Each structure stands twice: as structure tokens, then as C-alpha cells.
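Morning!

This is the sequence you dropped in the shared folder:
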Amino acid sequence: SLRDGRPMYAAAQEGRIEAMEWLYDKDPALCSKPKNDGWTPFHAAAWAGNIETMERLYNEDPFLLRKMRTRNKRLLKREASPEAKAWLLKTDPTFFKGIKKGCVIS
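The structure's back. C-alpha cells below.
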């Protein structure tokens, strides 16, 4: 169902921009809706190394990185692809400042 955010999450992970745009038109909140594990579509794109998808999500909400809580940043530091980590640091050199790799407790 659209409400649980799974289609947006899957589209972001797979880099399916057109599907993401269609879902966004239906419900813009899906772009930032977290799953039960805390992952958002941005996390899914970062895990898969879909830089174009990350950029699209970031362009929709330029404050996306600033709004992320420590837990979400820790998830990205631990789970994002090397390319995604490089993009994050290029976009915001202080993004991981003070974030340790430790475990994430829900």
C-alpha cells in the first residue's frame, strides 16, 4: 500500500526515478516516511549507491540532511555505499561529525 511507504522505498533503492515522481505526486510525505527500522527512501538509495536518486530526494528537500537525527546518520555511516558516503561528505563535509559507527538501537 502507498501509506506504508514501501513502494517509494523500493523505487529509491532501485533508482526508479519515474516511479518515485509518480508516488510523490500521490503523496509527497512518502519521500521522507521512515520504515519501522528507521530507514527512509534516502537511506535505501544510499545503501544501493543510487546517487541520482539521493540527489533528487535532496533537491526536493534541501534541509533533508540537516533534519536527520543522529540515529539516521549512524545508519548511513554504517550502511551507505562508499559512493553514497562520498556524496554525503561532498554535499555536507560535517555530516558525519561526531557520529560513531556503533550499533543502532531501535
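Headline: The chain has a mean pLDDT of 85.

More detail when I'm at my desk.
O.
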